[in-house]
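This section describes the prediction task in plain terms. A model, or a person checking by hand, is given the sequence of a single protein chain and must write out its three-dimensional structure as a string of tokens. No templates, partner chains or ligands are provided. The sample shown here is typical of the held-out split.
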Amino acid sequence: MFFICFYTTIQNMDEYFKIFYEQLEASDLSPEAKLQLLASLKKVEKDYARMDFLHRRILKDKSITINILQETVIELQSQKNYADSVNQQLLEQKKLLEEQSEKLAKNLHALQLSYSELELFAYIASHDLKSPLRNIGSYAQLLKRRYHGKLDSDADEFIDFIVNNAQMMNNIISDLLVYSRVDRDKDLAKSNFNRLIELVKHNIRDTILENNVEIECGELPTLWVHRSSIIQLFQNLIENAIKFRTDETPRIRIDAYKRDSDGFWQISVKDNGVGLDEAYQEKAFLPFQRINHRDRPGSGMGLAICRKVVRLHGGDIWYTKNRAELPESGTSFHFTIPQQEQAVGQV
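The expected answer:
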């Protein structure tokens, strides 16, 4: 009872154990009892020390945990504030993009209407111009037949000038009509390109025979395309190769392969003509552009029509000079057509 009452008045356990040892030493207990009590006291002191250590460790860990939790809460709050700020910015950007998208859609619609009207105007203007131009050409031919050699040399020159320019203007108008009608064919048809080449060769059979043209074809693909436009594309490229020939026999080679990078088919039309400088890569495909050999016939619309056809199919077109170190080495025109799966028709 003495020790229990004494414990309740002691706040420092080290003092408690010190006093306890002193009281034990001064007590009248037998040596055996003292040893027994001393052993028990040391065990209690040891257990207390261990529990005190654990208690202090728990308090320390608790303090560390609380600090970590507080810092985590602060960090999470900071991140939440940042996320709210970013989200607000994204909402504002989304609203701005929606407004811009709406404006773009309106502008695109207006552009499509303008483009359609421009194509319709070009078609109507070209179509309506052909009739009076045909009359001019006919009367110029009539003048030439009746009065050539009967007037002076100046009159003969003037008549020839009218006839030639009327024919040139007729060719330009015809090509302009073809250009305006490229995308009027809305349907795709499954077409074998080797068979399309045969149709082209039939269309320009006289030109091929007159120039002894040799045309070789590799194994070409069968694709869903705007059939009439692709025929026009091949015909323009082949006629272009014949037009810009050298003194050698015109040789044209057509090949194709499927690209692994995007699955597009790449078709190449290679000739042995005068060659086209790669510096005019963009200008060559613009309407009414004649890069070189202006003395040769043509309206400058052929390559423009080719590019419009290729872009109609979602592809691209370009050219390379076969041997850049030679002035006349021929040109290779390359264009791409995507692999499409659509059952519209078959040829």
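For orientation: Residues 107 and 113 are 10 Å apart (CA to CA).
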